[in-house]
Predict the structure.
Amino acid sequence: MATTGPADAERAVSLPVARVDVPATATPQTAVLAGGCFWGMEAVFQRVKGVRSVTAGYAGGSAATANYPAVSSERTGHAEAIRITYDPARVSYATLLRVYFAIAHDPTQVDRQGPDSGPSYRSAIFPQTPQQASVARAYVAQLTAARSFPRPIATRLEQGRFYPAEAYHQDFFDRNPGHPYIVAWDKPKVAAFRAGFPTLAR
């Protein structure tokens, strides 16, 4: 991951609330999202009220190649991704998608985010249920119709198992606050999330 350059995202994009959502359940649910370096994605969603845990990892490839050296070769089919366990009574799937599109990453970039390039940094949603897939498709269509972004949304809906990343990638933002990449790219993103979603941030 590159460690220099200004942050791409310094303020949240104003997006409409989704018209459809996954119905709330009494049990925790899981969402898997990919949007560039998983350090910043993890940091943003760890600060969302109702999120119980966030795990950095890989999705879209096989178990044999679900490791950082292999994924960094850009030949595994994996995307850097996060697995979010959340309480649907406190935060909905569509709300998580709104944060994902508004500030967690730039959904118009193809096979890159900020200073990082390659298919492992692609924008992709890995629905865990048919309902999630339906809501994600509907929200992308809604944002497209509203012309919420100056360029087409590049986010793809994909299938594939999630594999946790190495221990040193977990909670990277909190454990490495002075890391050049975190300072340049992820601290501004977290600050922008808090500013753009004050009632959702904790």
